[in-house]
UniProtKB/TrEMBL annotation, chain A:
Protein name: DUF3137 domain-containing protein
Record's keyword terms, sorted: Membrane, Transmembrane, Transmembrane helix
Membrane-traversing stretches: 50-68, 74-93
Gene source species: Merismopedia glauca CCAP 1448/3
TrEMBL record, chain B:
CDD domains per the UniProt record, alphabetical: FHA
Chain ranges of the FHA domain: 24-84
Protein name (Swiss-Prot/TrEMBL): Peptide-binding protein
Length: 296, 217
């Protein structure tokens, strides 16, 4: 285990450069923390509900005792009501404390699956460099732009970019790969006036989907003839149904592809894994042919 | 001794044709079959069907001959249609194990010749993206050498890209692949050379279909 969980809790970022096995072990630790926090959050939310019910019951009994002039009893219910209010606040604070570590499951799950997948074509002693960000997608430091809403006056739109995954390594054929996943989300917010004339603050966050960016830097000695395939490379690219190829750029020594996963499946572990795997398979469908053509 | 067994899975219709090292055991229950026999690693084949016994039959070599031995008194093993408790078998013989019909082929001419001794080499490809032959001369440690073709495909993700490694006619890259002998990459100039001169004539007669052997079958 290389992870320092105390340090991880502060920023919710896991960053390392080690063997695939170690990374998967570390991510398992993160998953444990996540699951434990989820359970704790649920537990305190349940407590909060009970205290809420107790407050209501105490208030009702307080009123009833008041009506029938049972003053001492009314006093007891009042005190019990206050205790329940304190209990409710405590439970909510506890729930939010644990809620901070209730992480987006799909992110750490898919990271560990991708690490396992790429490690199959890496030397046994190879290391993989990983950066996995599990903080909120709308955290302040991820804000990239604020613009006024195009037609709702008084409203603004914040755009956030959350580069939550970076994986870098070298395959057995000396090809370097560099993969990033970036989720874009937008928050629309402002004061809305209702029909009765009251102003109300509104804020809504929406995911705009995730971009997968894969760069392969290959040895030209082995794959140089890829130049002959220029223009046909795009036809070898196959992606899952809803995922679109946004960009494909072929340099002399590298190939860069960007695929976009729409928001409705951007938080689905399987969709992300499938898209990433197909990007790798597509690239190697090209490279394996280029290798045959590069031979003398 | 190395032999090849060929059969079709009666439930899935999938054909299997693994090349295996003796001793080979056949049965319904993987755990029920011995993993080792007189110091040799056993190739255990699972035939999932109620008509097959947990440990149904053994194929082993004895004094240069191939022998099949029925392992369960309540089960029958037919050799070319005849039920026998044990029998020698030769190239092309058919075994009936439960509802499975398995054909036996001797692969005496092993793929790898090193000097005058024929040495077995594992021909499975181990890479997922980059096919790399295993090449082990001993199945120990090879993730694909368990001799159990029914184990789940470890590279199941290839199904996301069913054409992967296939440059046959009608598939992506075929035009380049079919003329592969005329391409060469010059690492000094950084150019891809294409010797077009006699490309057309030879490409026609030499147009062997090709599939990168992903070896996971
Ligand atoms: Zn092997």
């Amino acid at each position: 285990m290389t992870i320092n969980l105390d340090l991880f809790r502060q920023h919710l970022i896991y960053e390392t450069n080690t063997s695939a096995e170690m990374i998967c072990q570390d991510i398992k630790e993160i998953a444990n923390l996540d699951r434990e926090s989820e359970l704790q959050k649920q537990k305190y939310n349940r407590y909060a509900k009970y205290f809420g019910i107790a407050i209501g019951v105490c208030f009702l009994l307080f009123l009833v005792s008041g009506i029938f002039d049972f003053i001492p009893l009314a006093g007891i219910f009042m005190i019990a009501g206050f205790i329940s209010i304190i209990g409710l606040i405590w439970a909510l604070i506890q729930a939010s404390k644990h809620g901070k570590f209730d992480l987006a499951n799909y992110r750490h799950q898919v990271a560990s699956e991708i690490v396992k997948m790429v490690s199959r074509d890496m030397p046994l002693d190879a290391t993989i460099s990983v950066r996995l960000v599990l903080s909120l997608p709308t955290q302040k430091n991820k804000l990239v732009e604020t613009i006024p809403h195009p037609y709702q006056s008084g409203f603004k739109i914040d755009t956030f970019q959350d580069e939550w995954l970076k994986i870098r390594g070298t395959f057995t054929d000396n090809t370097d790969f560099y993969l990033t996943a970036t989720e874009t989300s937008q928050t629309k917010y402002g004061w809305k006036r209702s029909r009765s004339g009251k102003s109300k603050y509104k804020s809504k966050t929406k995911s705009k989907g995730t971009d997968l960016d894969l760069t392969m830097h290959y040895p030209v000695k082995k794959y140089g003839a890829i130049q002959a395939l220029r223009g046909d490379v795009v036809n070898a690219f196959k992606l899952p149904e809803k995922v679109v190829l946004k960009k494909l750029k072929q340099g002399e020594k590298n190939l860069n592809a960007i695929a976009h996963i729409p928001s409705e499946i951007a938080n689905d572990k399987f969709s992300i894994y499938q898209a990433v795997t197909m990007m790798f398979l597509s690239t190697y469908q090209v490279l394996n042919l280029a290798k045959v053509l590069s031979k003398k | 001794m190395q032999i090849q067994l060929v059969w079709t899975d009666i439930t899935t219709g999938k054909q299997f044709n693994p090349t295996l090292e003796t001793p080979i055991t056949l049965g319904k229950n993987f755990q029920g079959m011995p993993a080792e026999m007189s110091g040799k690693r056993v190739s255990r084949i699972v035939l999932s069907d109620p008509t097959v016994a947990g440990y149904h039959a053994l194929i082993d070599e004895s004094q240069g001959e191939l022998l099949v031995i029925n392992q369960n008194p309540n089960a029958t093993t037919l050799i070319n249609g005849v039920s026998l408790p044990s029998s020698t078998i030769v190239d092309g013989d058919r075994l009936q194990i439960g509802a499975f019909e398995i054909q036996v082929f001797l692969t005496a001419t092993a793929p790898q010749n090193s000097g005058n001794t024929t040495q077995w080499k594992c021909d499975r490809n181990l890479g997922f993206l980059i096919p790399k032959p295993c090449g082990r001369t001993d199945p120990t440690g090879c993730p694909h050498c368990h001799g159990n073709p029914n184990q789940p495909d470890v590279y199941y993700e290839r199904s996301y890209y069913p054409d992967y490694g296939n440059y046959n006619r009608g598939y992506w890259g075929h035009n380049y692949y079919s003329q592969r002998d005329y391409y060469s990459y010059n690492s000094n100039t950084g150019n891809v050379d294409f010797t077009e001169a006699d490309a057309n004539s030879v490409a026609m007669e030499n147009d062997t279909d090709y599939e990168l052997d992903m070896g996971a079958s």
